[in-house]
Amino acid sequence: MMAKGLFDCTGKVTVVTGGNSGIGLGFATGIAKMGGDIAIWARNAEKSAKAKAELEAAGAGKVVAYQVDVSEERNIVDGFEQVMADFGRVDCVFANSGASPRYNSVFEMPTEHWYEFQKTALHGAFFTLREAARHMKARAEAGEPGGSLVACGSLSLFQGLPGKMEYAASKSAIAATVRCLAIELAPLGIRANVVAPGLIMTPMMGEGEQAKQVEAYFAPTIPMKRTGFPSDFEGIGAFLCSDASSFMTGETVTIDGGYMVRP
């Protein structure tokens, strides 16, 4: 048995929404490598089965993949009941499910799209964090404080993007929500933080030749001269799940190759 070290996640149960690919799977993989137990919530059962096998191979304790659509509050409440039944506890949650923006101008965006987008990106993320916090609070009141809530942000927290209002609004709102949770839940030892990725090559960015073109176009604009990959989120995932981050709360961590601090 290899010593897990500073970011040990053994015995911790983590729920990752949208955890079967992209950045969500990156977070989950880091926790798996540190021996944690993982519940994947996603809609595509085939992708989830593949992710489950990958996480087990990476060293996770127990992995269960659930089909949960976080655009409906009821599904989230039921989802946590199921996790509690199967694992007995929730230590860490990554509210990572979202969608990519698809318009380039405020004048193109249909009203219906604005409302529909928030169901997953904002409301789903909020209900995921709130319901997780309920279970963590109950555990704290039973004598075992602690827990980690994480929302996936984006650089649209800091920068204006033409036509991406629905996306930026959801990310900014959930970041503000996280700061409120950080203050309210701190006395219970529960922390809440945001991870804000820069340009990361995920399936959302396209596949094959399209992905290569996106990468070639954006890499020169990033100080590190490369785009990010889901594997770049393994370390921060394990850190935020583990007790190593127990005094860090209310923070937004950018993982962007230096993009936000360019001169």
Using brief descriptors, characterize the structure shown.
Rossmann fold; alpha/beta; 263 residues; SDR family NAD(P)-dependent oxidoreductase; 7 helices; 14% strand
What does this structure look like?
The protein has 263 residues and is α/β, with parallel strands linked by helices. The chain has a single domain, classed as Rossmann fold (3-Layer(aba) Sandwich), CATH 3.40.50.720. Helix content is 43%, strand content 14%. It contains seven helices and seven strands. It has helices at 22-33, 45-58, 73-87, 111-141, 165-185, 208-218, 234-241; strands spanning 13-17, 37-42, 63-67, 92-95, 147-152, 190-197, 252-255. A seven-stranded parallel β-sheet has the order 3-2-1-4-5-6-7, with helices on both faces. The longest helix has 31 residues, at 111-141. It is globular, with a radius of gyration of 18 Å. It starts with 12 loop residues before the first strand and ends in an 8-residue tail after the last strand.
Question: Would you summarize the structure shown here?
Answer:
With 263 residues, this protein is α/β, with parallel strands linked by helices.
The Rg value, from CA coordinates, equals 18 Å
Largest sheet: 7 strands, parallel
> What is the string of helix and strand elements?
EHEHEHEHEHEHHE
Parts with pLDDT < 50 across at least 5 consecutive residues? none
Tally of DSSP β-strands: 7
What is the strand content? 5-15%
Strand order of the largest sheet: 3-2-1-4-5-6-7
Helix content: 40-55%
Structural class: alpha/beta
- Might you state the CATH topology name? Rossmann fold
Helix count?
A: 7
Distance between the termini: 46 Å
* Overall tally of domains: 1
Quick one: overall form? globular
How would you name the CATH homologous superfamily? NAD(P)-binding Rossmann-like Domain
CATH class: Alpha Beta
Corresponding CATH architecture:
3-Layer(aba) Sandwich
**What is the mean pLDDT?**
96
